[in-house]
């Protein structure tokens, strides 16, 4: 591990000032991703700003819905009665991830910003545009079984591997951020992560030094509480990242679909919300025919690589299955 300066933030303003003052600084929350990356020297921040003592652990009802602190652990979030009752999709997605021990350490802010699991990103002996811009992409023609089938570029075929974010995309959540100028801004979570384009080193739209304060869940998304399902397909039954995952949610009027959400995980550089599948479901009756069509539409733009063609059919079927379970038909 490279030497680095350690700063403990005493309040959000001081934390943001410390991080913004030195390029490449990183915030330390649960440390379950950052510390691994630093040990492997994939990340070499000159300064680490410890935010673990900041008062960002609230679960608060707001007029607009529910506010979750950035430093609330994944376990605390998934188990909270207000989350379980109103946003069960979020609880399901969180508990599908990692292990109990990791979820006890991992925070909501850190989970959103976890980095890709592309093997070449971790392997300093190989080129990787995300780790070292301009060096090339070893995964493009390498072992790319776990990589993207949607939205990738010649510069990067890595995926965003997390589970929690997929549910947040389906629930129209927003991320509250403090900027180095001392302002707060709300970012729709669907605009937090980026597609790689020519700058895959940037995972998100956050500016240097910006600190996530919390996650805002809109009250309207509670309409999906009765018919939602998170489906995660993986090599092992637990403690493994998804090959493909689906966050599916429906608001029903009898057997008719009033609103739908379809988000695929581990198929692109960001959670992949399929507007076309969602639009096609509106007004239809629940059932295999509608759900199969949604799966076809969600993957219609897929461009598989040499070793991940399986993700296309898996994705289609996972969408259909997740919607069937959300509708309580399977
Ligand atoms: C073996 C293993 C298996 C795993 N399996 C899964 C899985 O199946 N599904 C899944 O979703 N995840 C999985 N994970 C990832 C795990 O969920 C993440 O490591 C964890 O959520 C990161 O949270 P953290 O608080 O520890 O973040 P940290 O490691 O502290 O930080 C991660 C990044 O976020 C930044 N950051 C943290 N908080 C803030 C903030 N408030 N504002 C701005 N920046 C911030 C940090 O600077 C850093 O860049 C796994 C991890 C491991 C080690």
In short:
This protein is of the alpha+beta class. 28% of the residues lie in helices and 20% in strands.
Description:
The chain has 330 residues and is α+β, with helices and mostly antiparallel strands. Among the domains are: 49 residues, 2-Layer Sandwich (Uridine Diphospho-n-acetylenolpyruvylglucosamine Reductase, domain 2); 102 residues, Enolase-like, domain 1. It is built from twelve helices and twelve strands. It has a five-stranded antiparallel β-sheet with strand order 4-5-8-6-7, covered by helices on one side. Strands 9-10-11-12 form a four-stranded antiparallel β-sheet, with helices on both faces. The chain starts with a strand and ends with a helix. The relative contact order is 0.13. The site of flavin-adenine dinucleotide has 28 residues, from strand 2, helix 6, helix 7 and strand 8. Flavin-adenine dinucleotide binds next to strand 2, helix 6, helix 7 and strand 8.
């Amino acid at each position: 591990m490279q030497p680095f300066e350690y700063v403990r933030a005493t309040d959000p303003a001081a934390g943001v000032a410390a991080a913004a003052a030195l390029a490449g600084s990183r915030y330390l929350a649960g440390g379950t991703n950052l510390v691994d990356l630093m040990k492997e020297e994939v990340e070499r921040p000159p300064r680490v700003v410890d935010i673990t003592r900041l008062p960002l652990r609230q679960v608060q009802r707001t007029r607009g819905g529910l506010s979750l602190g950035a430093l609330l652990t994944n376990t605390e979030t998934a188990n909270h009665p207000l989350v379980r009752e109103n946003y069960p999709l979020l609880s399901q997605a969180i508990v599908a991830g990692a292990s109990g021990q990791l979820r006890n350490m991992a925070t909501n802010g850190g989970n959103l910003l976890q980095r890709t699991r592309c093997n070449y990103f971790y392997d300093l002996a190989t080129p990787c545009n995300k780790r070292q811009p301009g060096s090339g992409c070893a995964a493009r023609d390498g072992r790319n079984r776990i990589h993207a089938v949607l939205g990738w570029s010649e510069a990067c075929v890595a995926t965003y591997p997390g589970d929690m974010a997929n549910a947040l995309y389906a629930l129209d959540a927003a991320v509250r951020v403090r900027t180095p100028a001392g302002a707060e801004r709300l970012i729709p979570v669907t605009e937090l992560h980026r597609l790689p384009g020519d700058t895959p080193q940037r995972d998100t739209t956050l500016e240097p030094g910006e600190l996530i304060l919390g996650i805002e869940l809109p009250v309207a998304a509670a309409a999906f509480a009765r018919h939602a399902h998170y489906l995660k397909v993986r090599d092992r039954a637990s403690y493994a990242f998804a090959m493909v995952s689906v966050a599916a949610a429906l608001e029903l009027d009898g057997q008719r679909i009033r609103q739908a959400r379809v988000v695929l995980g581990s198929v692109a550089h960001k959670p992949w919300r399929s507007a076309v599948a969602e639009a096609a479901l509106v007004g239809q009756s629940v059932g295999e025919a509608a759900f199969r069509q949604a799966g076809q539409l969600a993957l219609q733009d897929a461009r598989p690589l040499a070793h991940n063609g399986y993700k296309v059919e898996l994705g289609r079927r996972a969408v259909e299955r997740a919607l069937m379970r959300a509708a309580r038909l399977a």
